[in-house]
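Below is how a single chain appears once it has passed through the pipeline. First comes the sequence as given, then the structure the pipeline wrote out for it. We keep one example in the README because the format questions we get most often are answered faster by looking than by reading.
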Amino acid sequence: MSKIEGGYGWFHSEISSRSLVFDLLKEHQFVEDVGEILVEAGEIEECTRCSYQARGLKVDGYYYDSDTGRLYLIAALWKDENEEAKARVTKKEIEDTFSRCLNFFNRSRANLSEKIEIANEAHDLARLIQECRNEILSTTIILITDGFAERRPAEFQTVDGIDIKKIIWDMKRILDFIKNGEREAITIDFGEEGKVPCLYKTNESGVYTSYLAFISGNLLAELYSQWGTRLLEMNLRVFLSARGKVNKGIRETIIKEPSMFCAYNNGITVSARNINFVKADGDSGYLRGATDFQIVNGGQTVASLYHAKRRQKADLSNILVPMKLISITKEEDINTLVQRISEYSNTQNKISMSDLAANEEPHQKLHELSKRLQAPDPTGGSRISYWFYERARGSYEETRRLEAKTSAQEKAYDAAYPKGQRFDKGLFGKVWNSYLRMPYVVSLGAQKCFAKFNWWLKEQEYELEPFFKQTVALLILWRDAERIVRKQEFKGYRHNIMTYTLAWLFELTQSRMDLEKVWREQKSENAVLVAIEEMCQIVEAHIKDTNQNVTEWCKKEECWRTLLEKEYTLPDGIMACFMDEGSKDQRYDSRTCDEREAEEFCKDKGSKAWIELSTWAKQRNFLTGKARSQCFNMGNFLDRGREPSMALSDSCRKAWQDAELLGWRWEEEGNPVHRNEAKASQITELADSADISKRRNQIPDLAENGGIISLVMLLKSIEDKDDYTRCIAAEGLGKYCDPAAVIALINSLKDASSAVRKQSALALGGVGGVRSRPYLIDALKDEDRSVRKAAKKSLSKINRLR
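Resulting structure:
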């Protein structure tokens, strides 16, 4: 029997057993399991199962990336054959499945959601497609099958301006990934002529070779169009902050100053293998292609180029991007060095590759402990069994192959390590994040959920064995919740209902449930099961009581906070499940060190400070509207004695730090520093004065005093009828790093008076920054020599500051 045949039988056995455990159709379990594989392979970031089929229509799962406008649809072709020979997939079956899924997409863009029952998760998908039909730039249809298909390249087509990509994951591809754990490498060719000039250098130890080159903006946009976020090294894909969101500054440069892009942009850092390189003279040569092309720094640059080309129809022909390409010599060094390169290139990113892998402590120790810590026999007998922590995919089966050589040994192994007592890193993260009352994090998907948990876990101090016992107790509660929720026959969102129900239960019981008792008895108390059954009904109604996509709503902390406002009385007898008074506190702080620091930072400032900051920023048009709103909300939360969320605390701390760079100061006594701002009465007197000399004399004082009131008057003065008044107002505005001042100075570059134009050009050299460059460049063509000279001087100053 071939390895493929053996793997095929094992895989179907796994699907059958797991479908029984989770009470799912085998096809639906297949979608769940392969969805996780697609996430691990980097094909998609998460998978929401929504199995639906009708005449000419079929879809089984999806993921939508709103930042990039990419939609991923999964269609299952389930053969359910016991023998590999009977599991061949015909070309017609493939084309029919692709066609039915594409039909679902096209009809959803119209009004298919109205014809799908609201309780069905596919209704949410159809509605999402309809609502985002103008934002969706590309759609990838992934056909998954338990059969064997002929290898074929990805297919591309365009439907109403939307790029459609079709790919297949058949049984061989699935088994290859399970065995090797490696995603398929991205192979690219450089440039239209097949070569990119570069310099290269191998370090003294011969560990790696660096290639320095310039790559065209068009080529990067095309690569991103073809491969999407798979171009980005995995740790960059996990969180939105580092996944390649469009950067406004980069976009502005692409659209307004494409020729300056190379000067302003830091470029990209890439790791790759098998470099196709042609050597020329000295340390120069040509890059022709590379395998396993992965961007480890510069995701925002690539995403911004793609979106500028697709959304704003920007011309990228004159854009060159600096590229540092690193090829590591030894195969065994690749994973470690690429991880370090990625981490050191993205110092602002708190999440590293190790946060996504369970190959470091304490996971290794927990894995070893799971194989030797015997679980109590719930019957009181002497049955021996263990809870096996499968920290790496396939390690359970690999251990079984190594330790069980005969049929008798296999039977003994299965009895000692039953499949129902096996858990992986994904479930590990889910049960703990639920216990830490973060169901919205669990709802983000397996990768993000585990990364958040792993980040938290590394900072904890605990005894290994008690922690493992608590983990098993939480797994038992999770499995019981799973069984109860299944019996309710809810139509969809069972995963979200489970985590929200358990998190709510832990909140209401203040984490006083005796997990040690659950471990000893290997079961949950009846009172707890009653509570779960009653609470899941409330949770199901709560998460569906929204105008948003239910799946997206469950990912928001607001969904959790509003659930806590619901009333529920715990059943009688549940106190018997609590720990005894005086027992060791088993509660954990769900926050990481950085999150705690952010929350304490915000609380220390006090409510008044945040409301004042919001007002100060709004008066000056500083910060973004969202940041100002967040500061105001923080003030309200603190004023009412409410706990701010972790996300709000982190955003407000950043807003405060940004405001300080713009001149915001707050005294310890609780008052903002306004640095001798002019009085309103002085401004009113000046505005009403008909005496030109009086207006001229007071404007310098306003500029010296500073403050928002002075700024308002200077903005009025730069529109004065008197040329000299406008000129000294422009000089005064040059002391304000304020968007309103910069805009007024830019507008004054077109003033009728050459003196005003000159003074405005000079002022922009100090406060205008990059934003004023295009306008100063235009001023180089001014008819007045003094204006041209002032513009040139300011441009030089701005370039030096950069």
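Residues 66 and 662 are 31 Å apart (CA to CA).

See the next section for the split statistics.
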